[in-house]
Design goal:
Length: 204
């Protein structure tokens, strides 16, 4: 299977971490976003949204978006289970993952699009006030996470799941590329982060 990837891109990293946890080998195909290869007619035939990651199966069929790709991989290799073992856990993990995507990732994305790296590309009309608001929203969410981790070892309960992968990729991207590193005062958040980062899969 081929995974369309780009170094430093956070969403392909989610899939790569997931695959590492499953001991699944993926053939990484570099899709150079700096050269806009993800907007080429060839790539758009694989994913009309023009985004990575995309998983291309051996028969040429393609699956887009991180979570659907991870669900496909989990169906191939059910253990270790990362999406939930019973109806409640499946739903709870999904809800925690959605919180991160909708309430944290969306704000990191706004700060990224309106930040200096994207600004230097000259491809968007930036809105400084939007970045100011989203920066603040990210900081507030970090504080919320810090409180939650005071009573929960992992993002969705007492074991490692796909929600931890989503959160790790969000925080690492925000810290390294968007200048939104969590405050060092958030000790419980850092306890979680160090624990997750110590896993071999997180090194991808």
């Amino acid at each position: 299977m081929k995974l369309y990837d780009f170094p430093g891109a956070p969403n392909p990293r989610r899939v790569k971490i997931f695959a590492e946890e499953k001991n699944i080998t993926l053939d990484l195909i570099n899709c150079d976003m700096a050269k806009r290869e993800h907007k080429s007619p060839e790539f758009l035939s694989k994913n009309p949204s023009g985004k990575i990651p995309v998983l291309e199966l051996d028969d040429g069929r393609c699956i887009a978006e991180s979570i659907p790709i991870c669900r496909y991989l989990e169906s191939l290799v059910p253990e270790p289970n990362l999406f939930g073992n019973d109806p409640f856990e499946i739903s709870f993990i999904e809800s925690r993952n959605r919180f991160i995507e909708l309430e944290l990732w969306s704000q990191i994305g706004t700060s990224w699009v309106n930040g200096p790296i994207v600004g230097a590309m000259g491809i968007f009309n930036q809105i400084p006030d939007a970045k100011k608001a989203s920066d603040k929203n990210v900081e507030v969410y970090y504080e919320r996470l810090n409180k939650e981790f005071s009573s929960s070892e992992f993002t969705a309960g007492d074991r490692y799941t796909v929600a931890d992968i989503t959160l790790l990729s969000a925080i690492d991207f925000a810290s390294s590329m968007v200048d939104l590193k969590p405050s060092e005062s958030l000790t419980e958040l850092y306890r979680w982060h160090n624990q997750i980062l110590s896993r071999a899969s997180s090194k991808v």
